[in-house]
């Protein structure tokens, strides 16, 4: 798998998130694969679904994400290369990018941000920064500053 194939995989995952919102009635129980179901954020919040991936333990990597409101309206989208990283770092960089986009948007004035990631490591490290390995502490510290 080459770098362009990796970016295509990220784009497909983001597209699944986008299509899951547009193709279902949000108040009905999902009938398809539950991994493809997007849950709307509570009133007064927006949700950024993010993902990061790398080719190999450390290789060409990319991030992607979609920011949506309670109605499922797409407010922002990211998809970009981040150079050579491992998958955990890619996931953290996707989360950081979501915060950076949110704090520079008009939504920061009256909405709460929910960031959703499929990486148990990244979610745990962001929620419990002291548990993160030293090699990602710079990214964790930056995310902590952005959360304030």
Order of helices and strands: HEEEHEHH
SS summary, helix count:
4
Report the strand count.
4
Indicate the percent of residues in helices: 25-40%
The geometry reads as: globular
Indicate the low-confidence ranges by residue numbers: 20-26
Computed over alpha carbons, the radius of gyration is: 15 Å
Oligomer: single chain
Mean pLDDT: 84
What would you note in describing this structure?
With 148 residues, this protein is α+β, with helices and mostly antiparallel strands. 38% of the residues lie in helices and 26% in strands. The protein is built from four helices and four strands; from the N terminus they run H-E-E-E-H-E-H-H. It has a four-stranded mixed sheet with strand order 3-2-1-4, with helices on both faces. Helix 2 (87-103) crosses helix 3 and helix 2 (87-103) runs parallel beside helix 4 (137-147). The radius of gyration is 15 Å and the shape is globular. Mean pLDDT is 84; it is low at 20-26.
Features:
4-stranded mixed sheet, globular, alpha+beta, single chain, 4 strands, 148 residues
Give me the secondary-structure topology.
Layout: H1 3-22, E1 45-54, E2 59-68, E3 74-85, H2 87-103, E4 112-117, H3 120-127, H4 137-147
Helix pairs in contact: 2-3, 2-4
Task: Sum this structure up briefly.
By secondary structure, the protein is an alpha+beta fold. The chain is 38% helix and 26% strand.
């Amino acid at each position: 798998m080459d770098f362009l194939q990796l970016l295509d995989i990220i784009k497909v995952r983001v597209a699944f998130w986008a299509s899951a919102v547009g193709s279902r009635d949000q108040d009905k129980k999902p009938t398809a694969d539950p991994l493809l179901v997007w849950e709307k954020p509570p009133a007064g919040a927006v949700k950024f679904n993010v993902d990061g991936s790398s080719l190999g333990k450390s290789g060409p990597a990319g991030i992607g994400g979609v920011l949506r409101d309670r109605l499922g309206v797409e407010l922002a989208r990211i998809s970009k290369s981040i150079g050579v990283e491992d998958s955990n770092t890619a996931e953290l960089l996707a989360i950081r990018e979501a915060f950076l986009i949110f704090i520079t948007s008009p939504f920061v004035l009256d909405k709460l941000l929910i960031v959703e990631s499929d990486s148990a490591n990244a979610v745990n490290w962001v929620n419990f920064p002291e548990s993160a390995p030293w090699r990602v502490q710079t990214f964790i510290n930056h995310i902590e500053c952005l959360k304030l």
